[in-house]
Amino acid sequence: MNFLAHLLLAGSDKQLLVGNFIADHVKGRKIEDYPERIQYGIRMHRAIDSFTDQNPIVRKSILRLRPVYSKYAGVIVDMYYDHFLALHWEQYSKESLLSFTTSRYSILQQHAEYLPARSLRTLTYMSADNWLMAYATMEGMQQAFNGMSRRTVFASGMENAVTDLVRNYPSYREEFNEYFPELQQFVESSFVK
User: Fold this and answer.
1) pTM score
2) Of 36, 94, 103, 192, which has the most beta carbons under 10 Å away?
């Protein structure tokens, strides 16, 4: 899953949220440098990623993209799923998407001392362009994929990923709708918030 899903699944615990946000930028034993609840958030993020990577519904989405996007197919599916989460936000949260994103940017900025340099840089761009809100629109998705494509070392083709989303929109929406409740149940049963 991508940023929006991880932040939602972290709940209201600020340190858990920080851990979920920085997890991809904390390698190896560096996790031990953080307070216990942030470590728990990092572990939670990793467990969510592992659950997602092994899920047959998600694999179905990825396999549809793999011939074109190779190793980037999983990243693209994560973005697609965040699109559906943002688009149908009211089904998953009582808080409005605008209120949620504003508060999460603020919480992360208040905990900037815990953010690795790459996470801090991501947060700067994310909050300035309000990526989390933008995921709900095709224009926002296109902008996100363009930015990701520019940052990849190898030619990823991600700038074309919105076209593939549109082409198979009902399939991705159905797969997200089937998968996300499974993920929510996994998080609820595996992590004490």
Assistant:
1) 0.93
2) 103
